[in-house]
Design goal:
424 residues; four-stranded antiparallel sheet; 4 strands; alpha+beta; Outer membrane efflux proteins (OEP)
Length: 424
């Protein structure tokens, strides 16, 4: 029996399984942490890829901007009929003379350098816009991940409350069977369960919408699976969230401010180039003149444009000054907006941190003590069922406040990192 084909098929199957295993592992873990989402989006998101390609294109425009124009070659056939002695011809050896001229355009001194510097600054601006696109995309992914975490934790909380209401219903049924409680307590427990099931439907719908939004950011099909978010990123220490230190970093690294600064420098160079247009550009040329089959003369030529349209040039100069002023004002407006947003998000993240601490250290322990006391009182007939339900709602409210504060802090942290253009 020939075992070679069978061995080849087994080897091919193992190779396929080996290739599929990393893909399945990535699919199972994608979405569990925000870092996995960011890494995936950096390679797959088409919006960010577009900005990267545009930045590469802008880099490639630097060299042509400072290069000389291509030289020009001209040929003139003179006296193609030899003063009427022959029929018209285009043969250089049979016409009266043939002039060859090689010409090169030369801009005024300094113009090429300014054009190249403008192109370099535009390339820097394109790089800044690419960084800004990534910072915005990363902030949206971080916020969507935090919202998915919020829905996931609320779903877990709703299921915990549903299980608790099932247990409370059993307690109420036992007390009702013993004539110690009204049937209304059992019905109330069932109504609460229905409310929890309805809330689970709402949360499932919200999770589907958030997953579709996240998959759009990742350039994946809307229904593609994502792992449930396990945990949130740790918040930076309060020392790292100092406004003065962050203000300095924002001024130095914010992509929007960086782009506006590059526009200012580009506008300054454009203004200088506009003033250079007061001076003429040149064209130099040189070439031989051929008579029949011999070159007997050489010519050198100089051509220049005469800048006589002064009103047009003054208007262009005023335009360049206005564009420079506009660029400076635009940067000032962007700086004010970015710093105001920084202050707002720092205040919000501090408030979220304090709210979480209050819920964790005070509200939740008190609510749990209240619920245990209410449950014991209900079993002993000293507390009615409505009081027990209210105590349970306080626990739920405390846990929701805790989760909400955590997620709010993450969203505000994402906004701060967007302003910085980097992670804290």
């Amino acid at each position: 029996m020939n075992l070679a084909p069978r061995a080849a098929r087994i080897l091919a199957l193992l190779l396929v399984l080996g290739l599929q295993a990393p893909l399945q592992a990535q699919e199972n873990t994608l979405g569990r942490s925000v870092d996995s989402l960011l890494e995936y989006a950096k390679d797959k998101n088409p919006e960010y890829a577009t900005m990267r390609y545009e930045a590469e294109a802008a880099d490639e425009r630097v060299t042509p901007a400072g290069a000389l124009p291509d030289p020009k070659f001209r040929t003139e056939l003179r006296d193609i009929t030899r003063t009427g002695e022959q029929s018209a011809t285009l043969s250089p050896s049979r016409v009266g003379s043939t002039k060859y001229l090689l010409m090169q355009d030369l801009p005024w001194f300094g113009k090429r350098g300014l054009k190249q510097e403008i192109a370099e600054l535009e390339a820097e601006g394109a790089q800044g816009r690419a960084r800004g696109t990534w910072a915005d995309l990363a902030a949206r992914i971080k916020s969507a991940h935090a919202q998915l975490y919020y829905v996931h934790r609320n779903e877990q909380l709703a299921r915990e409350i549903l299980d608790l209401m099932l247990r409370l219903e059993k307690i109420a049924q036992v007390r009702y069977a013993g004539g110690l409680a009204a049937q209304q307590d059992v019905i109330r427990a069932q109504v609460e369960q229905t409310g929890m099931r309805n809330e689970l439907i709402v949360l499932e719908n919200e999770r589907s919408q958030l997953r579709a939004r996240m998959n759009a950011l990742l350039a994946r099909p809307a229904g593609a699976k994502l792992a449930e978010p396990d945990l949130l990123r740790p918040l930076p220490t309060p020392a790292k969230l100092d406004y003065e230190a962050l203000e300095e970093r924002v001024r130095a690294r914010n992509p929007q401010i960086f782009v506006e600064e590059a526009r200012i420098k580009s506008a300054e160079k454009s203004r200088d180039l506009t003033y250079k247009n007061r001076y003429p550009d040149f064209t130099f040329g040189a070439g031989p003149i051929q008579y029949q089959s011999a070159v007997k003369e050489w010519e050198v030529m100089l051509e220049l444009n005469i800048p006589l349209q002064q009103s047009s040039r003054r208007a262009q100069e005023r335009e360049s000054e206005a564009m420079l002023s506009a660029a400076r004002s635009r940067k000032e407006a962007a700086s004010n907006q970015v710093l105001a947003s920084l202050s707002e998000n720092l205040s919000a993240i501090e408030a979220a941190r304090r709210s979480e601490m209050l819920a964790t250290t005070s509200l939740l322990p008190q609510a749990e003590l209240t619920f245990r006391a209410a449950l014991a009182g209900y079993e002993n007939g000293k507390v009615d069922f409505a009081t027990l339900i209210e105590a349970q709602r306080q626990i739920r409210q405390g846990k929701q406040n805790q989760i909400k504060a955590q997620v709010e802090a993450q969203i505000r942290l994402a906004e701060i990192e967007k302003l910085l253009g980097e992670d804290l």
